[in-house]
Amino acid sequence: MNSPIPHLYLGKSLDVIPTDAGAICLVIAREELMQPGVGSSLDTLLHLSSSEENARRFAGSVLLAFDGYNEDPRPIHAIPECRAYLGALTAQWPFWMHFLAPIPDQWSLLLLTLLPPGQRSALPDGRFGQEFDIEAMEALLTHQVKAMNNLHQMHKLAPKLCHQVFNQAISAVEQVTGIRPISQRQRPRTQP
Fold it and tell me: I need a labelling partner for 133 at 20 to 30 A (CA). Which of 13, 102, 112, 120 fits?
């Protein structure tokens, strides 16, 4: 895990990642959502998960952003094309649990965009909250943990790193939801 982040690299069809890059910011432009498929974003993410070095180096170091929606009053998770795109991307690359930065806002964006839409409700302090289906969230996170475990086994990553990545991701999810969504049986497996 890279903390503090020395340099942020905007990822687009990465072939070579600069050696001083401490994080990857995957910016998904509005124009990209209008194209068929998830090509360039998928290429970037596949490059990250294709090697042990990148999997280790960028654990918990990917930031996700959508560009071109500043004038849209809806939150990203309420925009159908963002939901569809991120769903299609995640269907082909399910390794967010390992790579997404353990920042509550990042996990909120990911979870609310991938989960079935819920009711928006006013909170006592004037802010708004978003309801979510707990069973759907547990299913999504269980799938993410399984994918993360497969990635860890494929690259033979150190158990200490695996547990650190998992705990930081789940801590961010807890901060977003207020609950611990993963039981003991779903924790990362340690390699033999």
Answer: 102
